[in-house]
Design a protein that fits this description.
Blueprint: H1 4-21, E1 29-30, H2 32-39, H3 43-55, E2 59-62, E3 66-69, H4 74-97, H5 99-102, H6 114-120, H7 126-145, H8 148-164, H9 169-190, H10 204-212, H11 216-244
Antiparallel strand pairs: 1-3, 2-3
Helix pairs in contact: 1-3, 2-3, 4-9, 4-11, 7-8, 7-10, 8-9, 10-11
């Protein structure tokens, strides 16, 4: 027998994936009963799962009517990118302020200061590094192929594992939630393109290399470049749509 808490989590994950895939479109209304019938379960774990997703900012609660998939705006997306950049910058600034890392300004990135950087990141052992590398490789293959669904799955795992190395669960949870919200906004915008081949960011390994080397400036530059790329992609699509109206 599946525990109710597990069922609640499974339903929340399934619905989140439906939202990310665009099958539960932004702005769509639905009820607890509708979802319970869809999954063949009772209303209680469904209601709990929907409340969880609402707490994550993915659903709006419609008083006496049910739930609606939250519709993020381009302004929201810009704010998400800025918030993520500020948090990541703060993490890497802490690394750069580390006495061992900063003892010799002439020390090249990735040399003697790497151990301090790795401790600040929670430790990058061979197994952890190999696991994140597999996610990076898979995400980059999907990005180059223009396979958005596969990219999202591996991209979320990549960022979750990478941020998990920080050793701070609050930062990890915040960045994971922010990443999901960014994709919820970006997916319908990106799908308006006839082909996504060559359009999607594929710098996962470059970021991982910089983090593994303890090269904080390089890591921050990769993330800044990603944000610029992402904003250019969605901004261009939004502008084109406005011209068509």
């Amino acid at each position: 027998m599946i525990k109710r808490s597990t069922l609640r989590s499974q339903i929340a994950t399934a619905l989140r994936d439906e939202i990310l895939a665009g099958r539960l479109a932004t702005g769509r209304d639905f009820t607890v009963k509708e979802i319970a019938e869809q999954y063949g379960v009772s209303a209680t774990p469904v209601r709990e799962a929907l409340v969880d997703l609402a707490a994550q900012g993915l659903l709006d609660v419609e008083q006496h009517r049910g739930f609606r998939v939250h519709e993020f705006t381009l302004a929201d997306y810009r704010a998400m990118c800025e918030a993520g950049q500020l948090v990541v910058d703060g993490v890497f600034q802490r690394i750069e302020r580390d006495p061992e890392h900063a003892a010799d300004p002439a020390r090249p990135p990735g040399s003697a200061g790497t151990s301090a950087a790795r401790r600040a990141l929670g430790g990058l052992g061979p197994e952890a590094l190999a696991s994140v590398r597999r996610r990076a490789d898979a995400a980059e293959r999907a990005a180059r192929a223009g396979d958005l669904d596969v990219l999202i799955a591996y991209d979320l795992r990549f960022w979750r594992e990478l941020s998990g190395l920080l050793g701070n669960p609050y930062i990890c949870d915040f960045l994971d939630r922010l990443r999901v919200q960014c994709w919820v906004f970006a997916v319908p915008v990106l799908r308006r393109h006839a082909s996504l081949r060559g359009r999607l960011w594929s710098g996962h390994n470059a970021l991982l290399d910089a983090v593994a080397a303890g090269d904080a400036p390089a890591a921050r530059e990769v993330i800044a470049t990603y944000n610029q790329h992402a904003l250019a992609q969605v901004g261009a699509a939004e502008t084109a749509e406005e011209k068509d109206i």
